[in-house]
Write a structure and sequence with these properties.
With 97 residues, this protein is an alpha+beta fold. The protein is built from 3 helices and 2 strands, in the order αββαα. It has a two-stranded antiparallel ribbon. The radius of gyration is 13 Å and the shape is globular.
Length: 97
């Protein structure tokens, strides 16, 4: 499997929070999506459980910046971004399906 963190560089944000996303591919990183039971305290999930995310969206999904959206809405955007990211990495051949 390819290094998904390195692969994130230059990709489009897949979270796309309205009125938050900066659509700047230069700021895109792999943002890990925490799932209960998938990692311990202070540990991140595996890279496959992540989404390509611009710096603005990353700040919101990690709770560093508040937004107009509820926790549930942010979670939905984060999970949809993770699914879009997974589709992209499979299409790129970085992950075998």
């Amino acid at each position: 499997m390819a290094n998904l963190r390195k692969l994130a560089k230059g990709q489009e944000c897949q979270v796309r929070i309205p009125n938050v996303c900066n659509f700047n591919n230069e700021t895109t990183v792999l943002a890990h999506v925490p799932i209960k039971g998938s990692a311990g305290m202070g540990q991140k999930t595996i890279d496959l459980i992540g989404t390509w995310c611009c710096s603005n969206c990353h700040d919101v999904i990690d709770g560093r910046v508040k937004s107009q959206f509820s926790r549930e809405e942010i979670a939905n955007m984060k999970y949809e971004g993770m699914i879009r990211t997974q589709i992209n990495v499979v299409k790129m051949g970085a992950v075998k399906w």
